[in-house]
């Protein structure tokens, strides 16, 4: 069975400051990892994904994440946030290389960017 | 047309009502999904349809009844719901079950009185 833990339910951050959102997973098989973003009153949008290869993954809007197998983590980072990054961020894991298979989502981290 | 469209965006219903949520995708995908997003809980996969056939039903109560008449349309029929069913219901699609990225709609916010 897979599980995903997002350690912070809320992260306040000032504009232009860096942000890191933590995600830890557990799985007994190979994992494929994803970060989704949900802007207010919208559905989820894929930010980035790790399927194989380089452990540092770059996504849209300046976000990146690093897969760390030994620490079973996939933390999301952005060096300088904007007001428009205010949203909820979800980490997800799949045991299938294709995102369309069953994803297990974390509880989400709400990011509030303050001016 | 946006990729995945859900209607209505907001719905308020009593426990004895019957209503339906509709999802339409314009992406040429063959798999469609219903997810439930409740406050302070992770997203829960409810149903998956692949080429119009139901492939997943995650122990969802029978008061939720999905229907997939074709690969572009997905419905969630609601009857005799409970207040704890109040949530955001998200529809998603992908190329096929087991293939491709998930594309989500904006959700239908359901309130059960």
Q: Can you describe this structure?
A:
The complex is a heterodimer of chains A (115) and B (113). Chain A has no helices and 12 strands. By secondary structure, chain A is mostly beta strands. Chain A has a single domain (3-114), classed as Immunoglobulins (Immunoglobulin-like), CATH 2.60.40.10. In chain A, strand 7 (56-58) and strand 8 (64-68) form a beta hairpin. The mean pLDDT of chain A is 91. In chain B, the strands form 2 sheets. In chain B, strands 2, 4, 5, 6, 9, 10 and 11 form a 7-stranded mixed beta sheet that branches. In chain B, strands 1-3-8-7 form a 4-stranded antiparallel beta sheet, with no helix packed on it. The termini of chain B are far apart. In chain B, a hairpin with a 6-residue loop joins strand 4 and strand 5. The interface between A and B is medium-sized, with 21 and 25 residues.
User: What's the total count of β strands of chain A?
Assistant: 12
Largest sheet of chain A: 6 strands, mixed
Give the radius of gyration of chain B. 13 Å
How many domains make up the 3D coordinates of chain A?
1
Quick one: how many beta strands of chain B? 11
Oligomeric state of the chains in view:
heterodimer
Q: What's the helix-strand series of chain B?
A: EEEEEEEEEEE
Strand-pairing-aware structural class of chain A: mainly beta
CATH top level class name of chain A: Mainly Beta
